[in-house]
Amino acid sequence: MNVIKTAMAVRLLGTTYHKLFGLVRYGKIPAPSKDSSGDYLWRPKDLAAARRALGSPKAPMGGPVQRPKNERLERNADHSS
Fold first, then answer.
1. Is the pTM of this model over 0.70?
2. pLDDT for 13-58, tens place per residue?
């Protein structure tokens, strides 16, 4: 059974922790089960419910969301040599 924690669920859904947690907190989706440390364990049915509530019916293709590189870090790397 595929189970992921909230951080990975956020990446797969392309949203933020606060939006995802808000869906649970305000009853928009049922709360996923939790592990012994209290972290949510997201199953495929939980992710599907979150996608519907967020208005994104299909899973993103290619895995986690790709973020652009930080230009400032690139500029600083050029000056460090």
1. no
2. 999 999 999 999 999 999 999 999 999 999 999 999 999 999 865 5
The tally of domains found in the chain comes to 1
- Cα angle 17, 15, 36 (rounded to 5 degrees) comes to 35
Axis crossing angle, helix 17-25 with helix 44-54, rounded to the nearest 10: 100
SS3 of residue 40 by DSSP: strand
Is 59 part of any domain? yes
* 37 domain-assigned: yes
The CATH code of the domain that includes 46 is 1.10.1660
Element (H, E) at 4: strand 4-5
Placement of tokens 């009853």 in the chain: 27
